[in-house]
Write a structure and sequence with these properties.
This protein has helices at residues 20-27, 43-48, 69-84, 101-112, and strands at 10-13, 32-36, 52-56, 91-94, 97-100. The chain is an alpha+beta fold.
Length: 114
């Protein structure tokens, strides 16, 4: 399995065929990860076929001074929205899919410019 070290994104794997060596390589890397999440899919989809995502860190992960200014501004806005929604807990079905309530509230506030 080959992954670009510059991806900086996560990609959903469709029924991945990973070997034990693939998993060991991923687990020992600071820049590559495997994750799963129940969010953004229906509870039934998660119960029967939970998604697996593979991702690679951005090039500046351990060097925040190299972070582009536009990314820094967006990150600061996201942090402010997250702090403004502190204390909102639980999950909710939104458009037929499961999400954290805090996530939905952050999206509402972001659209309104709050």
């Amino acid at each position: 399995m080959e992954l670009s070290e510059t991806m900086g994104m996560a990609y959903r794997l469709v029924r991945p065929q990973l070997t034990v060596m693939d998993v060991i390589k991923i687990r020992s890397s600071d820049g590559i990860r495997l994750t799963t999440s129940p969010f953004g899919i229906t509870p039934e989809e998660y119960a029967t076929n939970p998604p697996i995502y593979v991702g690679a860190s951005v090039a500046w992960k351990n060097h925040p001074e190299k972070m582009p200014e536009s990314v820094r501004a967006g990150l600061n806005r996201a942090i402010a929205l997250s702090k403004a929604c502190a204390g909102i807990t639980g999950t909710v079905i939104h458009n037929g899919r499961l999400y954290p309530k805090k996530c939905i509230e952050q999206m509402k506030r972001a659209r309104k410019g709050i």
